[in-house]
């Protein structure tokens, strides 16, 4: 997916040490999606475009910082993998932290809409941890503003968040 060349030497050193390989390793992408091998499964049936990310949801009222909200938000974004319950002595202070499998072929969501206990709409702001080559204007992974071919000259506003 990347349009910019990865640092092949750094990737080679890291993966060689992890895999204990003496042979040369060749790389074709920056974001690796590795899945367990399943005997008899065709290579085309593997879904390499689903990738787990840790993300933080800010601007959630304290009353909504519970397990059910975490489950709902995780399911709305993709497939919920984990919930981090261990922030600041076991309680959420500023954000809810989730690990979610997301389809990286689609634009990443920037916000999530929630309803508080009174039925008022609340906008939760999503911050993805450790994204590589992500262009916020179009929301796609794998390129930057210099190489974006999707949203040339568009500006962020309330309708395209």
TrEMBL record:
InterPro entries listed in its UniProt record: At4g02000-like, Zn_knuckle_CX2CX4HX4C
Superkingdom: Eukaryota
Zinc knuckle CX2CX4HX4C domain sequence ranges: 106-150
Protein name in the entry: Zinc knuckle CX2CX4HX4C domain-containing protein
Species assigned in the record: Gossypium harknessii
């Amino acid at each position: 997916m990347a349009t910019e060349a990865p640092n092949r030497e750094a990737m080679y050193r890291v993966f060689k040490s992890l895999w204990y390989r003496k042979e040369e390793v060749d790389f074709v992408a920056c974001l690796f999606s590795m899945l367990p091998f399943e005997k008899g499964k065709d290579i085309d049936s593997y879904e390499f475009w689903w990738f787990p990310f840790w993300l933080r949801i800010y601007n959630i009222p304290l009353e909504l910082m519970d397990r059910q909200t975490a489950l709902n938000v995780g399911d709305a974004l993709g497939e919920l993998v984990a919930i981090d319950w261990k922030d600041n002595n076991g309680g959420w202070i500023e954000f809810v932290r989730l690990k979610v499998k997301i389809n990286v072929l689609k634009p990443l969501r920037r916000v999530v809409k929630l309803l508080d206990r009174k039925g008022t709409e609340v906008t939760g702001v999503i911050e993805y941890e450790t994204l590589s080559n992500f262009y916020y204007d179009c929301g796609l992974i794998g390129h930057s503003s210099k190489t974006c071919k999707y949203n040339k000259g568009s500006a962020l506003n309330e309708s395209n968040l």
